[in-house]
Amino acid sequence: MASLTIDFFHDVVCCWCFNISSRMRDLAAEFDLDIRHRTFVLQASPAEMADRWGTPEDARETILGHWAVCRQVSDRPERVDIDAMRVAPFDYPHGMTAALGCKAAERLGGQAAHWDMFDRLQQAHLTEARNIADAQVVLHAARELGFEAAAFAEAFDDPATLRAVEADRQHARTLQVRSIPTLIVRETGARLVNGPREDLAAQLRAALRLVA
Questions:
Q1: What gap in Å lies between CA 212 and CA 92, rounded to an integer?
Q2: I need a labelling partner for 6 at 20 to 30 A (CA). Which of 18, 143, 183, 205 fits?
Q3: Phi and psi based region of residue 130 (left: phi greater than 0; alpha: psi -120 to 50; beta: remaining)
Q4: Is the Cβ–Cβ distance between 10 and 99 less than 8 Å?
């Protein structure tokens, strides 16, 4: 039985989530954590991107400013390629297509598959400057991870997968999650303060003492 269960709310387009995901992978093994992945789509369409950020040019410039801050505190700054995304030949992507890919992976392979897909799509987004709002990019990532192409495409297109994404969004509202990444310890209700690996480890040790 896992020592703690952590709800991890994240969006593939979120650079802060990229920093946290690799740290939580290490900590999940060290502390025997059960990580439950929750999609939290910040903007679900080009229209929502425009409402939040303005023009595509303004969106790209503002968001890449966030990337720069994230890269400064990343454990793997070389994997955040700001220059490549700045000249990418598409508008900065919304997160819905990638969220559907993560949920399709989860439906076929459980939480571990969700996490593998999340990390692969973050790599496509942050390192390779690929358009993760393009369904073909998501389907290609699924094939790279070993999913059978037809089965994954069926799960990706299934309306139940969209409902699962929306259910995570509703669950976030219930828990008053308003930003990502958010990490909630189910046993205590505590929210981990995002930071370096050792800070997160200290918080997990404190949570374990509470439930011991």
A1: 45
A2: 143
A3: beta
A4: no
Q: Which residues contact 203 (CB under 8 A, 6 or more apart)?
A: 190, 192, 193
Instruction: Please report the domains of the chain, with CATH numbers, ordered by start residue.
Output: 4-211 (3.40.30.10)
User: Which strand (E) or helix (H) includes residue 36?
Assistant: strand 33-39
Q: Give the residues across from 100 on adjacent strands.
A: none
Q: What is the rounded CA–CA span in Å between residue 118 and residue 184?
A: 18
For 39-79, the pLDDT digits (tens) are 999 999 999 999 999 999 999 999 999 999 999 999 999 99
Q: At which residue do the structure tokens 């023009």 appear?
A: 55
Report the alpha-carbon distance of residue 14 to residue 126 in Å, rounded: 9
The pTM assigned to this predicted structure is 0.96
